[in-house]
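Query structure, 565 tokens:
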């Protein structure tokens, strides 16, 4: 992490155009068309599931997809609306309306840009894996739950947003299943599952939509009594005009209300986009500029809400489709956006005919693929702390909401990490004799004689607030053996924080009041600079801060001998 220096914003689209030729364009062109076709049903389905219209889903995919490819730090990343945002977007709309969603998305974009400007692209990758798996599995179950009404044709209105009341309503209305709608959903699901077994390159979701839409239209023409709810029936005829950009008012009250949601969108978007980029790098051998990717994602999320769109991030499935079909530069992503734009302008009347049960089947498959149940099973073989983080994040996501899940999950992971560090950090006490090479790979062991009245305390690990408290407790437990000199050996201390420095200052002052000298040993340059900046050096004296234990013991022994006379 670096907060200084030049801005790390170098879009891959600029570097990719150097040496660009017709051969690369042909590959990008074909891949862009395929990805655009694959993205079509997903953009529509994600838009509807998020609580907005199919039009908004498509507009998000067009504008967001174009900007992610044009401004991002990965050559093959495909951006657009994703399943991960369905839950948070739906909840924001329910509480604050579409204006609230636009403001939250805009603020999330600003947060993402700031993350990139402050070079946090690498840091965001260190969010614990059980948290990512936990909320992803929770989102998958929540998406699955939202599709039962359309899949079974229950015809329910005002379905509760909460998981348990939602399923309570479903179960109490199972007698109202529309069997024709359920048949449409099952057939759609079967086509999506079978299509990849015929060919991995065939987009199962699109094939399902084309076949089922055509079949239901023909059946309704000859048998008017057999009808199923369609996109057009629910949303009416959709406009094919790109809306003009519009602004919104920001005030501190609104910002305070929506900041937690904006933070969740930003963190979730950063995780998903960088995870997708990492997977893509592993396949293509390229290297993502994480900070540029965050800035590009941020600009996309700042722009999209001005046109009424929902949050945008990198999409793993569409990115992998791009790679599989030969796309290797951001041009493929730009072409995918153009393909979606052409469909939006000229084929929207046909989209009105798509059955809602068919889209429900698409999202059921998406939720299954998102669940990562094999990964969840694998984590259950990990340490109990990882399992705890996974389960807490999962249940908070399902029962409450994603904002709480991420916040509590991160807090729990930090607490468990600190606990693990503290358990693996040791504080040893030596007297009389000290082996210089103990705890190292050195074969030449030099044993130092420690004079009576000299105590040596060795801190093995980071000297931060948790260890500082542990060190204080050990010092109190040895007060009955009052030494004349205390050596604090810090050869294995990589860094020291403000709490530890404060505790160290108190120790030095209280020891001096009791006539006890303090000598620091093995202080590395980084820790030495921190001590100097905190005036510990002037309080202790330069000669009492040693870079090696032999010097510290020599000074301590000399003091002990003098005081013994």
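Result returned for the query:
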């Amino acid at each position: 992490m670096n907060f200084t220096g030049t801005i790390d914003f170098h879009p891959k689209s600029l570097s990719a155009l150097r040496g660009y030729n017709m051969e690369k364009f042909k590959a990008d062109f074909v891949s862009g068309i395929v990805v655009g076709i694959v993205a079509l049903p997903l953009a529509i389905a994600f838009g509807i599931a998020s609580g907005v219209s199919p039009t908004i889903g498509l507009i998000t995919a067009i504008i967001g997809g174009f900007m992610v490819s044009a401004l991002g730090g990965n050559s093959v990343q495909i951006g657009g609306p994703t399943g991960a945002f369905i839950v948070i977007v739906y909840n924001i709309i329910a509480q604050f309306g579409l204006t609230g969603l636009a403001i939250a998305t805009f603020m999330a974009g600003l947060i993402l840009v700031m993350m990139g400007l402050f070079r946090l692209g690498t840091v965001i990758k260190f969010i614990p894996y059980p948290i990512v798996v936990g909320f992803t599995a929770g989102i998958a179950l929540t998406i699955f739950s939202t599709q039962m009404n359309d899949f079974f044709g229950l015809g329910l209105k005002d379905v509760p947003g909460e998981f348990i009341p939602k399923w309570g309503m479903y179960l109490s209305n199972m007698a109202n299943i529309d069997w024709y709608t359920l048949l449409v959903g099952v057939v759609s699901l079967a086509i999506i599952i079978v299509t990849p077994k015929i060919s991995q390159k065939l987009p199962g979701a699109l094939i399902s939509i084309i076949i089922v839409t055509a079949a239901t239209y023909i059946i309704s023409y000859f048998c008017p009594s057999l009808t199923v709810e369609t996109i057009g029936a629910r949303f009416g005829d959709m406009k094919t005009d790109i809306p003009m950009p519009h602004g919104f008012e920001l005030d501190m009250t609104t910002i305070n209300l929506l900041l937690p949601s904006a933070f969740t969108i930003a963190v979730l978007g950063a995780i998903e986009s960088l995870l997708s980029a990492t997977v893509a790098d592993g396949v293509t051998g390229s290297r993502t500029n994480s900070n540029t990717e965050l800035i590009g994602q941020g600009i996309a999320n700042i722009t999209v809400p001005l046109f009424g769109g929902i949050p945008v991030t990198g999409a793993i499935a569409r990115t992998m489709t791009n790679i599989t079909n030969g796309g290797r530069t951001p041009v493929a992503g730009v072409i995918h956006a153009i393909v979606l734009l052409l469909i939006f302008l000229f084929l929207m009347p046909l989209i009105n005919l798509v059955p809602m049960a068919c889209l429900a089947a698409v999202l059921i498959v998406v939720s299954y693929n998102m669940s990562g149940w094999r990964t969840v099973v694998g984590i259950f073989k990990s340490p109990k702390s990882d399992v705890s983080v996974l389960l807490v994040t999962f249940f908070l996501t399902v029962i409450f909401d994603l904002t709480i899940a991420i916040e509590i999950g991160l807090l729990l992971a930090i607490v468990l990490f600190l606990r693990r560090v503290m358990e693996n950090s040791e504080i040893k006490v030596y007297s009389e004799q000290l082996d210089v090479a103990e705890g190292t790979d050195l074969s030449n062991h030099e044993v130092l004689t420690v004079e009576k009245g000299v105590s040596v305390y060795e801190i093995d690990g980071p000297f931060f607030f948790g260890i500082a408290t542990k060190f204080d407790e050990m010092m109190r437990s040895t007060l009955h053996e009052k030494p004349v000199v205390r050596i604090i050996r810090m050869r294995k201390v990589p860094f020291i924080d403000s709490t530890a420095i404060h505790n160290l200052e108190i120790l030095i002052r209280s020891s001096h009041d009791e006539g006890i000298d303090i000598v620091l040993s093995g202080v590395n340059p980084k820790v030495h600079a921190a001590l100097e900046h905190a005036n510990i050096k002037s309080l202790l004296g330069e000669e009492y801060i040693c870079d090696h234990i032999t010097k510290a013991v020599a000074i301590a022994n000399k003091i002990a001998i003098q005081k013994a006379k």
